[in-house]
Amino acid sequence: MSKKHAYVLGLNTYDHDVSACLLRNGEIAFAIAKERITREKHATGFYKEVVDYCLKAEGISLADVDLVVRNCYVLPVEEMETRLLNQDAPGFMSERERNVAAKEPLYRSRSNKVVTVSHHLAHAYSAFAACPFDEGVVMVVDGVGSYSADVTEEYPSSDKTNPLARESESYYKFSGSKLETLKKVWLEPCRGYLADEFFNMAGLGALYSRASTYIFGNWNKCGELMGLAPYGRHGQMKPLLHIENGVLSVPDWLEELKEPWIAGSGKDWEKSPSMQHWKDLAWQIQDDTEMVLLARAKWLREATGAKNLCLAGGVALNCVANGRLAREAGFENVWIQPAAGDDGIAIGCAYYGYLAIQKKPRASVIKHAYFGKPYSDADVRGATDKTLIRLATKSTQSDNISRDTAKVLAEGKIIGWFQGGSEFGPRALGNRSIIADPRSAEMKDILNRRVKFRQAFRPFAPIVLAEREDEIFEGSHDSPYMLMAKPVRPEWKDKIPSIVHVDGTARVQTVREETNPPLYRLLKEFEALTGVPVLLNTSFNVKGEPIVETPRNAMECFLTTDIDYLALHDLLIHKTALHRVILPVLKFYSDVSAIVRASMGGKDD
Length: 605
Description:
Helix content is 33%, strand content 19%. The longest helix has 30 residues, at 275-304. The protein is globular. The chain folds into three domains: 7-120 and 345-357, 2-Layer Sandwich (Nucleotidyltransferase, domain 5); 131-336, Nucleotidyltransferase, domain 5; 377-599, Carbamoyltransferase, C-terminal domain (DHBP synthase, Alpha-Beta Complex), CATH 3.90.870. The strands form four sheets. Strands 13-21-20-14-15-19-16-18-17 form a nine-stranded mixed beta sheet, with helices on both faces. It has a five-stranded mixed beta sheet with strand order 3-2-1-4-5. It is α/β, with parallel strands linked by helices. Helix 5 (119-128) packs across helix 10. Residues 598-603 have low confidence and may be disordered. The two termini are 22 Å apart.
């Protein structure tokens, strides 16, 4: 391809959720998280795979890229890569990746085309640079950001702090391409066991992660914590956060919190005698978080008079809190880009380069999240035409895949739905989804038992025709990225019980024809058959694995779970009787997917 476009590449590097975003003339061309390629959830390490993915998808080389902007919240990328030269840090750089990185031009680059930006500033650009508003305010709240000494933005002198303090909250206002920092809240340095200081820091996101570690043995299970919270009881624990006159305080970890889940203990988490204790803690920390976020948002609105609020940072993935902000904070509009967590840092880095360094005007709005590359029919044939696959499955080519899929959904079947480019961000938004009929109260348990293999308390989300949303769910704010929980209207709760959480809410995704025509048509076809313009949507994966990216990934998941049909482009695939013979043989082996891959030739799509 000739050099007829301007390209900026944004990178989130080394720590969790390594990702890349390629801008073409100021619009997102492609974006991908490393986990989708390597199949390691929240993948860390070197960034070659995500760079290569974006460049190959666009048909260009690194020489065609005008500017590269990157971030690593642990340390500035330059310092991080210098330390990795002489330190064994397998969590950030495996031995294999050391050998790969040494040959890559971006590693330890001294080019003036390669720039580093600090963490919250990148989050802020991800939030506002491609939002639908000309002006407004931005809230960035996450677990931990850059050291104060490494922050690359100007901020109020009254917020100056210890150079070793780390970003916890940042607040901005924007107009056009101009961004101004209004306030920063810091995580002050604290003591801990070697490298676990973060879990003891006094901050909003840090405390939520600490509770996640306490309950699940993993700091990155905040979504599960949010889902567990409605099962807890009000008033069983003292508040863990206080805010007064804009000052946040975090009391010492309560002495009664002495029942942590010990990961690797071999015990059954769901049968633990500490379960109600954990539920009560989840309720309290969720309530505390909502209280603080509402107070911050109201302050931000009153201080600026802004009508539009944009959110980013890991805490912006808290759908329940987002729903309350939309309903109660007083803003006319609340907007959250689909990759609000650290994978979305790549978007912010790219837009920082485009707006702040190249001085280009804002001219693009994110209208969807389908930034993965498309796969060809040849890729699909490569995943379906192998001997083992042909024995275990039967494929029917459809002239209307939405109509034919709706028919089997209405019969109660579970569908793997694979269309177009993959979604960027943590949510499956209808291109890499498992879809089912929401009218059955048993469907949630069926999915958990047969396909997802995850905790029974976790809810499933609805997709709904955008024009019918207000009829079924309360609240007028649009929710195209499944980042806002809304109460289900009473008259609909019994009609779609499998997507109603125990607190009466649902994590809604609205679907429009212009952004996803096949998914929109699927909903319309299902409505024509059932009168219900809603489907159950969950991510196309099993517990512990990333969402599928390629046709081969989809076929692996389909073959090794009890998904009934796979809609793969215009193919509707189901399992033959022989699959029941083949599957037990496969499950005898420890690495089922490796055997499936071998039957497919062992090559990536």
